[in-house]
From TrEMBL, chain A:
Span of domain GST C-terminal: 92-217
Record domain GST N-terminal: where: 3-85
UniProt cross-references to InterPro entries, sorted A to Z: Glutathione-S-Trfase_C-like, Glutathione-S-Trfase_C_sf, Glutathione_S-Trfase, Glutathione_S-Trfase_N, GST_C, Thioredoxin-like_sf
Pfam families: GST_C, GST_N
Name the record gives this protein: Glutathione S-transferase rho
Family statement drawn from the similarity comment of this UniProt entry: Belongs to the GST superfamily.
Any GO BP annotation: L-phenylalanine catabolic process
Signal sequence annotation: none
CC per GO annotation: mitochondrion
GO MF annotation, one: maleylacetoacetate isomerase activity
Organism of provenance: Neolamprologus brichardi
Superkingdom assignment: Eukaryota
Automatic annotation (TrEMBL), chain B:
GST N-terminal domain span: 3-85
Protein name: Glutathione S-transferase rho
InterPro entries assigned: Glutathione-S-Trfase_C-like, Glutathione-S-Trfase_C_sf, Glutathione_S-Trfase, Glutathione_S-Trfase_N, GST_C, Thioredoxin-like_sf
UniProt source species: Neolamprologus brichardi
Gene3D superfamilies, A to Z: 1.20.1050.10, Glutaredoxin
GO biological process entries: glutathione metabolic process; L-phenylalanine catabolic process
Lineage start: Eukaryota, Metazoa, Chordata, Craniata, Vertebrata
Amino acid sequence: MAKDMTLLWGSGSPPCWRIMIALEEKNLQGYNQKLLSFEKGEHKSKEVMDINPRGQLPAFKCGDVPVNESCAACFHLECKYKSQGTKLIPDCEAGLAQILQRVFEVNALVEKSSNVIYYNWKVPEGERHESAIKRNKEALTAEVKLWEGYLQKTSSGFLAGKNFSLADVIVFPAIAYLYRHGLSEERYPKLTEYYKNLMNRPSIKATWPPTWKETPGQDILKDI
Amino acid sequence: MAKDMTLWWGSGSPPCWRVLIALEEKKLQGYNQKLLSFEKGEHKSKEVMDVNPRGQLPAFKCGDIVINESYGACFFLESKFKSQGTKLIPDCAGSDNNCALIALIMQRVFEGNTLHQKMAEVFMYNWKVPENERHESAFERLKETLTTEVQMWEGYLKKTPGGFLAGENFSMADVIVFPSVALLLHMGLSEDKYPKLAEYYKKLQGRPSVKATWPPTWKETPGQEIFKDI
């Protein structure tokens, strides 16, 4: 039941957003939720640590059971609420395989984006190198081109198969994050088409990060 | 059918090992397999690239279906062969207890990513980072991060008296995470500092699926002491 679920989340965080999209798609509106601020360090508050000892968002409880890893929560919600809302994992084998492949490839996309976007946050000044920044950007460029290629091969406009699936729930936030940070719309037409199409999907519209509506994004990724 | 499956793998690579264990647990012995060498760059060969354009191992085909992500392959095998071999994820529809157990298994499965990533950053530091960009301070920081992570897993094992990562039985959590734990211990993690992890490692070493798929290169050469300071 939605009322037994609690989500502590931060605006614009792709992992948090995944769970929110999944909850909407499975018709689980009405869950308890609390928007917290990373800037104010609220992800390290006792309230969060009680659910997620890692002090990270999302912190998500399904009844008494914590499931803080966003992909775990999404799989769990699909499994538990299989018969309601959108079917995020089809019954057919080939469909399942393609979804699984794309879902787990998201790690590569997120890691490479992070290495560019958060470089200065992760790496102390004395350890930064232009050569590293360049290499990280090249790696991200190659990765983004790969996803552009995936979308060129699917005529449906979704990442896996003919319909919106768990692959889109999990990967879309990471792609939206790229555009928020300045990814060129012209250079990646298929990705842009995907991004703009899904922006209008009810579950995504309903959960669009509030801070993204208020402030403009950055342009760190404009050279990618 | 096992005969329709092919796995390209490298010895000692936790992602490859996960799939090998899953295949054993689901009683799919008889699959086609090819052991390749990372050192010789065989993961970038045409044979692998044809299956996995990322040029990474594992590369896995089940008939015409390709799943190169180890988590994806393990989930796929469990789903397709649900009724044979070990049940790696309990059935969803069922008691609330099952629900809580499934959630715990999934939680640990996905946390396994974090463990593996932090371990890889230490293990692969000199391989990934060009010499002129290396810093003692960076390496120290990566080791500290890994230490915190390993302590967390030691804590998880203290809380599960069954001796497995999620409850009383071997599950998908163990398929996914054991290979990373094994790599840590094989490469010098202190058994005195982490008694629960050491106990877990020794317990699972004896499990048939793990024994059957123990990395061949580990039998030949002792591990390096990369993680002794963790």
